[in-house]
Amino acid sequence: MNSFLKLKHWQVFVVLMATPVLVMFVATSVLKGMSAARIVSLVNITLQFGWLFPTAYALQRKVLAHAKNDRFFFKASIIVMSVFTVISIVNLMGFNNSRYFTALMMPSAICVMYLAYFAAKSLRIAELQRNVVFDDFRDEFFMLLFLPVGIWYIQPRFNAIAVRDVQG
Q1: Of all residues in the chain, what percent are helix, strand and coil, respectively (each to 5)?
Q2: How far apart are CA 68 and CA 90, in angstroms?
Q3: Crossing angle, helix 98-128 and helix 134-145, to 10 degrees?
Q4: Is residue 38 within 8 Å of residue 92, measured between CB atoms?
Q5: Most C-beta atoms within 10 A of its C-beta, which of 11, 29, 32, 72?
Q6: Could you give the C-alpha distances from 163 to 43, 115, 131, 166, in angstroms and in order?
Q7: In a 10 Å sphere around its CB, with 0-12 CB exposed, 13-18 middle and 19+ buried, how is residue 166 labelled?
Q8: pLDDT digit string (tens) for 5-17?
Q9: What CA–CA distance (Å, rounded) separates 168 from 164?
Q10: Helix, strand counts (H, E) of the chain
């Protein structure tokens, strides 16, 4: 999990932004219609979730004393997002589970926002070495929600925390 903290910002950017574009070109040439858009969407969400979860988890372990109250919701968000991903894959395979898919869309969106909140909060706690309020990490939260720009500012700070912990 610590390896996600050590990735360079351009590596994260390429994986999170270029991979869905590549999948879009492949999927639209192979598949026609709505399933290509669903596949691209699923790949994009999975990649963003796959970067945000290990990063937030690694930060959580570094600031465990300050973030104890948030662990339950963090774990619940991981479970909801995992179930949503599985149902999305099953839905893409042709099994019609649209009522489950639709029922999990809003909780999944809330979970993504919570994971961004948790990662931003953990980042600021690790940097400041104290408890923080939302005003302390508001900018980081929005940068994590709107990733293309946020990656360039947030990932170097994750790197600095990883280096600081290795040296210190």
Answers
A1: 85, 0, 15
A2: 35
A3: 130
A4: yes
A5: 11
A6: 30, 23, 22, 5
A7: exposed
A8: 667 777 777 777 7
A9: 6
A10: 8, 0
